[in-house]
Design a protein that fits this description.
alpha+beta; 7-stranded mixed sheet; 8 helices; 13 strands
Length: about 350
């Protein structure tokens, strides 16, 4: 595991925590109608403990409106932490996408302006390029995964950047879920393993999972590969919760799929609520060329002990998930990315489940 550190002075200005408003509906194309249900049944597990845990999760989720996040959600006000995802499109690969030092500085400006304090990033081809971006973000640090190397030598690592003056990152907990590379289906290990780490913002402790799932490009079997990845990640989350570990899990990343897809249903099945439903409802999209919402954010919504609904949804601030509009930056798609950041806000001055 590669762990990087930026060396900067004190962060000079506090990142803005103002509410971001959705963009005008006519500026975005809507995705197909999403019929995803967050109270879907869960297949029986081999162990009685897992079966009982899943049944309790299902029962708790059934008490929450499936049309949106309406219960067990933090109120506005107080301290917040902004968490997001940003596919940076071949960052550091000068053959695929040449960039200048000014371009790296502009990418950092986009991240600053988005207000994020924790950002899952994808398509990092060169660590030095990520360091250049982070060097323009005073007080920020990063973690970089090790998987995502293709047979032809092309690299697409995933990482997490964060404001180290606002967010604690327990680097001893960093994990790559290599089972989700599904080598038994791919025939190799070139897919990106989800990057997982425990973090804490103020009083809010959570586990962050950053994803970059299999691309849609290619023939139809690759769609089933992505669905298999989703099932593995879903099982890992349920196993963590059943084992009594942190149930506040936040999933971010480029999922390469729509909210109503089988892949996203498999990912959320019985444990996640996708907050990007809110961005979709506003007609927003994250992938610019295809005008599609494929970069997602999800929060755990569980109840094991029969009390109020818990998980990361308890700290999530309703209606905060949005696509940060990069079209206001001239030439962003050329020097920046073909994706736009997606950002959500969480109440950080209390740990609702704590």
């Amino acid at each position: 595991m590669e762990i990087g550190r930026s060396h900067h002075g004190k962060h000079q200005t506090e990142i803005s925590r103002k509410k971001h408003h959705g963009h005008k509906k006519e500026e975005y194309s809507m995705e197909p109608k999403d019929n995803t249900s967050f109270g879907q049944s869960v297949q029986n597990d081999p162990t009685k403990q897992m079966s009982e845990m899943k049944k309790k999760i299902e029962d708790s989720i059934s008490t929450v409106a499936t049309g949106g996040i309406s219960q067990g959600t933090a109120e506005k006000g107080g301290s917040t932490v902004e968490i997001g995802t940003y596919n940076m499109e071949w960052l550091g690969d000068n053959k695929e996408k040449p960039r200048s030092d000014k371009d790296y500085a502009m990418l950092a400006q986009v991240i600053k302006d988005s207000g994020v304090e924790v950002m899952g990033v994808q398509e990092i081809a060169d660590e030095k390029a990520l360091q250049k971006v982070v060097s323009n973000l005073p007080g920020f640090d990063y973690i970089l995964g090790t998987t995502g190397v293709r047979g032809n030598g092309k690299k697409q690592f995933i990482g997490i950047i964060y404001n180290a003056e606002r967010v604690q990152c327990d680097k001893s907990t960093v994990k790559e879920l290599k089972e989700a590379q599904v080598p038994q289906l791919m025939g190799d290990n070139h897919l990106r393993a989800p990057l997982i780490v425990d973090m804490k913002a103020d009083n809010f402790s959570f586990t962050l999972i950053n994803l970059h799932m299999k691309s849609k490009r290619g023939d139809s079997p690759k769609v089933s590969i992505r669905d298999e990845q989703a099932k593995i990640i879903n099982k890992w989350m349920k196993d963590q919760i059943a084992a009594g570990k942190d149930k506040d899990i936040i999933v971010v990343g480029d999922c390469n799929d729509f909210l109503d897809s089988q892949c996203m249903k498999s990912l959320s099945n019985g444990v996640l609520q996708m907050t990007t439903e809110e961005a979709k409802a506003k007609g927003e999209y994250s992938n610019i060329p295809w005008k599609s919402l494929i970069d997602q954010i999800g929060v755990t919504m569980v109840n094991i002990n029969g009390g109020p609904v818990g998980g990361a949804v308890a700290n999530y601030i309703k209606d905060s998930t949005h696509v940060f509009d990069t079209r206001k930056y001239p030439g962003h798609q050329k020097w920046g990315s073909d994706h736009m950041p997606v950002v959500a806000s969480f109440k950080s001055d209390v740990d609702v489940d704590g």
